[in-house]
């Protein structure tokens, strides 16, 4: 499985990748520093899953998701972000995100949240 991790913090991208591995997901990972770069990678590489931060420069995570859907790209998409308000969760769901994992998170959180969507 190929996953794209989009976050403007290199350290946070590394933490997400490490947490995926700890959760037992030994996937091929590509990284993007923002939504605009992520969109280009999705267009070129067609990953199996996108994990994106919400707040990023250039293009936010929600705008990244909207752009993908406008282009007819239906790649499964989830947020891994520092905020998890009810409003953000509702907006993410309305735009087609599968889930929103709020920081801080654990390997168990990743596994419990992502596994149901892998069937």
How is this structure best summarized?
The protein has 119 residues and is an alpha/beta fold. The protein is 43% helix and 19% strand.
Features:
119 residues; Rossmann fold; globular; 5 helices
Protein model, in words:
This protein is α/β, with parallel strands linked by helices and 119 residues long. It has one domain (2-114): Rossmann fold, CATH 3.40.50. 43% of the residues lie in helices and 19% in strands. It has five helices and five strands; from the N terminus they run E-H-E-H-E-H-E-H-E-H. Strands 2-1-3-4-5 form a five-stranded parallel beta sheet, sandwiched between helices. Helix 4 (86-94) links the parallel strand 4 and strand 5 (99-102). Helix 2 (35-45) packs parallel to helix 3. The protein is globular and about 35 Å long. The model has no long low-confidence stretch (mean pLDDT 95).
Low-confidence stretches: none
Instruction: Estimate the mean pLDDT confidence.
Output: 95
SSE order, one letter for each helix or strand: EHEHEHEHEH
Question: What is the C-level CATH assignment?
Answer: Alpha Beta
Strand line-up in the sheet with most strands: 2-1-3-4-5
Helical segment tally?
Answer: 5
Sheet of most strands: 5 strands, parallel
Strand content: 15-25%
**CATH architecture field:** 3-Layer(aba) Sandwich
Give the total of beta strands: 5
State the end-to-end CA separation: 13 Å
CATH topology: Rossmann fold
Chain-wise SSE layout:
Blueprint: E1 2-6, H1 10-22, E2 28-32, H2 35-45, E3 49-52, H3 61-70, E4 77-81, H4 86-94, E5 99-102, H5 107-114
Parallel strand pairs: 1-2, 1-3, 3-4, 4-5
Helix pairs in contact: 2-3
């Amino acid at each position: 499985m190929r996953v794209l991790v989009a976050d403007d913090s290199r350290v946070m991208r590394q933490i997400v990748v490490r947490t995926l591995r700890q959760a037992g997901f030994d996937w091929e990972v590509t990284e993007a520093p923002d939504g605009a770069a992520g969109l280009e990678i999705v267009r070129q590489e067609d990953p199996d899953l996108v994990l994106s931060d919400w707040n990023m420069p250039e293009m936010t995570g929600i705008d990244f998701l909207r752009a993908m859907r406008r282009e007819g790209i239906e790649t499964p998409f989830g947020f891994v972000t520092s905020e998890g308000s009810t409003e953000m969760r509702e907006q993410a769901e309305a735009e087609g995100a599968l889930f929103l994992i709020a920081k801080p998170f654990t390997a168990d959180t990743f596994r419990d949240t992502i596994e149901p969507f892998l069937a």
